[in-house]
């Protein structure tokens, strides 16, 4: 992909989208379809579209959400594999961009450094740097839409390990997977037990001499079918679009049922997951040691393994799970707190991500820097006291894109409402300044806990609650009015605010 030239300082756009991943491409498509007269551009710091699905290159990378719900509502997923690998997902995203004319609006190697809002001009001034040349430029826009996800693209999370420098082999983080890494016939230790680790282990096991998944704490892991037989049958007999729509509805209901059951009946859910794991593992396997977490199901995200591939390589003796803590690295592996030593030729640190909201963009409003922890999330898509800014954060308990689609629809309805009423500015403000608050993401994952103090917060009532329920969000974002007593609309020329 050839980079576009840096925009001139005089260029003004109605909407500036930051990030050309699944959220940014989706936002652009909704804008083009619902508000075709609006001018917009996507700024992407990297040299290619696709976000996560282009960045990560480790073996076996895939989605653990089905593509009938992880895909866009407006574009059917045609592949027979419902749990798909990264190349298939990337093709799908790039097809979406090409089919909707989004490529022409995308500017690669454009990193947004900061954005400042002027109430007098009712616009954002955005500072951009060309990542490939270091050249800087300025754009202005009426709305800033942050679609860059929630983690740092340039740096994964690796905890400090005692004696790491002594280890003679390569130590690799999955976010920075070397293309030339040779692990054939070698002993591999994968540190971690989340979605990345359970993907890597079965993918590396056929080539490596042996793979050990070293975890500090077990994770709930469930086998799922890579192909959705019901969805494939529906598409075959009812046609692509109708079959896809019904498959999507089926899977949305199924995801909600599983999550609701786990939250309402955690003890029963724990027993059921343990029973499924026991059937997948060899007779006499210590299930409670390695697959029985100390927390309830969905306190952290459940890990899905397509066709039970992780359990299969354990049964075949190609992979082992060890639950222990690392005392230190040694020249030939890792010394554990139990006194056991794991021999290794290659170590993979599948230890998580570094969360960074809004891509680390420095935001100011009328000269005052925005402190994210001092803001509240409005409908899970805007920030209190920050005008004309929207952001895309999906579900943590379901398919990410389900929420992205709804908030993009709502965003377009909001802009249409402003045009119809002659407004150029809107700003969320809570009518109750003393409203109790809590963290933006009520989620126990380590990467969230490490960053929770740097993120916005949420309130204890709508519209300040961050919903993680698709059915509730359909009512709020798709069916509900965009006008709200806690969303202040104004027109700059009149210098007057009015509640719509």
TrEMBL record:
Family statement: Belongs to the FAD-binding monooxygenase family.
Keyword terms, alphabetized: FAD, Flavoprotein, Monooxygenase, Oxidoreductase
Coiled-coil stretches: none
GO molecular function: monooxygenase activity
Cofactor(s) listed in the protein's UniProt record: FAD
Pfam families for this protein: FMO-like (PF00743), NAD_binding_8 (PF13450)
Name of this chain's protein: Flavin-binding monooxygenase
Highest taxon above the source species: Bacteria
């Amino acid at each position: 992909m050839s980079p576009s030239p840096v925009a001139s300082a005089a260029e003004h756009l109605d909407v500036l989208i930051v990030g050309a991943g699944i959220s940014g491409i989706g936002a652009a498509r909704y804008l083009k379809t619902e508000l075709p007269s609006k001018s917009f551009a996507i700024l992407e710091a990297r040299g290619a579209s696709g976000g996560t699905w282009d960045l990560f290159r480790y073996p076996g990378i895939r989605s653990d959400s089905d593509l009938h719900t992880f895909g866009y509502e407006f574009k059917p997923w045609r592949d027979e594999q419902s749990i798909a690998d990264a190349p298939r997902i990337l093709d799908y995203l790039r097809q979406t961009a090409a089919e909707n004319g989004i490529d022409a609006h995308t500017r690669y190697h454009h990193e947004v450094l900061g954005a400042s809002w002027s109430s007098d001009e009712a616009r954002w001034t955005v500072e951009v740097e060309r990542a490939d040349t270091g050249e800087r430029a300025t754009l202005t826009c009426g709305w800033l839409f942050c679609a860059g996800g929630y983690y740092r693209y340039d740096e994964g999370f690796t905890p400090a390990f005692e004696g790491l420098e002594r280890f003679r082999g390569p130590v690799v983080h999955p976010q920075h997977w070397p293309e030339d890494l040779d692990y054939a016939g070698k002993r591999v230790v994968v540190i971690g037990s989340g979605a990345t680790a359970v993907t890597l282990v079965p993918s590396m096991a056929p080539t490596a001499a042996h793979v050990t998944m070293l975890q500090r704490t077990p994770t709930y892991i469930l086998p799922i079918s890579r192909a959705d037989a019901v969805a494939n049958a529906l598409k075959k007999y009812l046609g692509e679009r109708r079959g896809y729509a019904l498959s999507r509805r089926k899977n949305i209901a199924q995801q909600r049922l599983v999550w609701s059951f786990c939250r309402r009946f955690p003890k029963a859910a724990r027993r059921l997951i343990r029973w499924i794991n026991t059937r997948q593992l060899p007779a006499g396997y210590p299930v409670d040691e390695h697959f029985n977490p100390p927390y309830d199901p969905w306190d952290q995200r459940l890990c899905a393994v397509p066709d039970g591939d992780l359990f299969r390589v354990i049964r075949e003796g190609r992979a082992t799970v060890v639950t222990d803590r690392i005392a230190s690295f040694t020249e030939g592996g890792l010394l554990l707190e139990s006194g056991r030593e794991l021999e290794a030729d290659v170590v993979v640190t599948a230890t998580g991500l570094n969360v960074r909201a809004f891509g680390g963009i420095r935001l100011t409003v009328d000269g005052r820097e925005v402190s994210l922890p001092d803001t509240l999330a409005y409908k899970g898509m805007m920030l209190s006291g920050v005008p004309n800014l929207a952001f895309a954060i999906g579900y943590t308990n379901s398919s990410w894109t389900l929420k992205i689609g709804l908030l993009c629809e709502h965003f377009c309805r909001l802009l249409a409402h402003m045009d119809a009423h002659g407004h150029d500015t809107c700003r969320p403000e809570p009518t109750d300044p003393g409203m109790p608050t809590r963290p933006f993401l009520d989620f126990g994952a380590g990467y969230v806990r490490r960053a929770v103090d740097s993120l916005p917060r949420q309130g204890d009532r709508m519209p300040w609650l961050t919903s993680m329920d698709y059915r509730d969000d359909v009512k709020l974002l798709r069916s509900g009015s965009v006008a709200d007593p806690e969303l202040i609309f104004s027109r700059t020329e009149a210098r007057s605010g009015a509640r719509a």
